[in-house]
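quick one if you have a minute, typing this from the bus. below you get a single protein, a line of residues and a line of whole numbers that encode the local backbone shape. could you go over both lines and see whether the tokens make sense for that sequence. anything you notice is useful, everything is just below.
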Amino acid sequence: MKMRSVSILALLLVALVSTTSFEARQAGIGGGGDGGCSCHGGMTDNTVITIDGLPETFNASEEYLFTLTITNDDVPVENSDQNGGFRMILQGGGVLESVPDIDGNTAQEMDGGLTHSMDINDRRTWDFKWTAPADDTAIADFLIYGNAVNGNGAADSDGSDQWNKLEVSVQGVNANPSAPSAAALTILMTVIGLALGLILIGCMWVFYTRNPDNFSIGNFWSYLKPWLTTTDHKQVGLLYFLYGFFFFLVGGLLALLFRIQLALPENDFLSQAEYNSFFTLHGTTMIFLAAMPMIAGFMNYILPLQIGAKDLAFPRINALGFWLIVAAAPLVFTGVWSGEGADITWVMYPPYSSLTGQTGGPNPGTIAFISGIALLGASSTLSGVNFVTTTFTMRAKGVGWMRMPLFTWSVLISVFMLYVSLPAFVIGVFFLLFDSTIGTTFFTAGGDPLLFQHLFWFFGHPEVYVVVVPAFGIVSEVLATSARRSIFGYRSMVYAMVGIGVVGFIVWGHHMLTSGMSPAWRAAFMITTMAVAIPTGVKVFNWLATLWGGSLVFKTHTLWSLGFLITFTLGGLSGMFFPVAGLDAQFHDGYFVVAHFHYVFIGGIVFALFSGVYYWFPKVVGRKMDETLGLWHFLIAFCSYNAAFWPMHAVGIMGMPRRTHTYAADSGFAELNMAISIFAIIFGLSQLILVWNIIRSIKKGEKVGKDPWGGWSLEWAVTSPPPTPSFAVEPRQYDANEGAEHHETKLESMLRAPFRAMSNLWNKEAKI
């Protein structure tokens, strides 16, 4: 009884306290109504709130008169003293005032906002004056709760009182849009969502086809869980590659979106903020989330097999490195989903990267973006230590330093380049993050923004070689096998890659020839940049000599490597314009740079990766890919790629700037840009042939044995796919030419003579 009495008393007290909150608030709505006018019934679209008089963009300190109107035909007026009410909150700056009616009555200030008073509660229309902020880069946000009441002074007992909410944003004439428009963003989100869904369905389909009778979600999870917890270098390698290939498609989609924007002059498909945000994500995605993970996939899968190791030295650290990049991707992309994407390009130059927000600092998307980049740096560090340690300590018998496959050499050189360059970049990124969050001044007021450019390009230019050198290794393996002989000038190829690794660190300044560099330093960087052509030329001529002296077999992987030779050479030739300071001043920040970079990046990296996919696919799956589909993939992609990127040289020479979201109709760029966009779309769509070929070949491809191509390195000594562990007994590697029926021609003998002399001299010195 006692508990019952206490309960009843408590309910009475609650009812007593709540009584006033259930009444129509004639005297206005305070902070308690910031969640809506819930005391007046439910929120409904029947109540319509309109604003008349607010501009789309405002000028600094200008005054604007506007009218707030509430309509609802379903709520009759029963009392002329109570028709409607409102609460209006202004965020972002400026002064909001109520305009007196003919009787001098105004709205009242309450809890940081304006609301109706008892004197103006007899209507559903009110007038206001807004003085815009003095900062015309700001964005003013109006939050309005409007209520249509029937005037009976009671709660919503009969469903008569109904309210709604309205949010209005007015940006200054020089403000960046607060959020991207829906069209392009919807396309991006939809395609990414569909892709993720298709990946999940594909995994379930693969599992289902193995045993349809025992399929269930629980069994599927049992199948999926080992992939999420694996430390096996082969499975981690596949995860790396699939992750990178997915973001390769995402980055390509971003490129197609702004190629649609640039197809026509003065196009409005993308806003400037959208374009800048997508542009930033495209570069970052292609380099950090696509190219590097795909290459890491090859490194993880192939390197231990090539040197006869059972696994990598630190399997758990290797898996951790992968999951760090998985965690980094949402940080890089999060700003786009929130409407405040980073628009600082992949180079992240301060002070702009520290001043992108509306309050003088970076927006949340930029901070998240920079944090994601820092996390990617940690992932690369952890992954790299594995490859170095494994190569130094776990090589099988016969795998000496000068008998390692060139791909293994390329991985080792690439990782050392990464370790030398990455600290400068990571330090710069953290300093940039500190400037953006805790108010340090490393690169902002009192600091030196050019310092970040030096730190970035000390990493950024070697980073190109970090991903290109492994591509050299892939092409070397493919061409040697396709030519049915060992690579021409093996030692010189190793020395050339080492030379690229060394010279690559003293060339970064050519990116800054237009930043006020002294003539002496400009001359130094001009010479060192041109010097990169020497070891690169050695590699190209050695590849040609390998083809000249071999018996070439034209498979799909061969075609992609030959395509690599053509496009990478053209990209290298166009790159020799930039070390010349006078020409660099002309071409800098123009589309000629875009053309050069894509000829090196796509033609030099992506083509090599495609070659590696077709070459090592039988080793991974145990089946060949369809050669007919592979031929169509190569022909369409190669032709459309050149048709898309070669004209960029022309528009660059004509003066079209890079990083611009539109151009004038009379600029003369329209025809070439339309052609570029059309062929870029064809190139993007051609990658679907590769996707289909992979899916089809997993189930229906021709079964193969250990070595379908006639390779000589140790990965071809194990079954296809390899077991776990890869080698039950430590293997032994023999020379590539042992047992090969190949005789040198006089030309080959003459070409090899200098390198033989160097090799003999090297061996004599080594014995001494």
About this structure: Confidence is low (pLDDT under 50) at residues 11-24, 178-182, 737-748. The domain at 24-172 is CATH 2.60.40.2410 (Immunoglobulin-like). The beta strands are 48-52, 57-58, 63-71, 84-91, 95-98, 108-110, 113-115, 125-131, 139-148, 162-172. The longest strand covers residues 162-172.
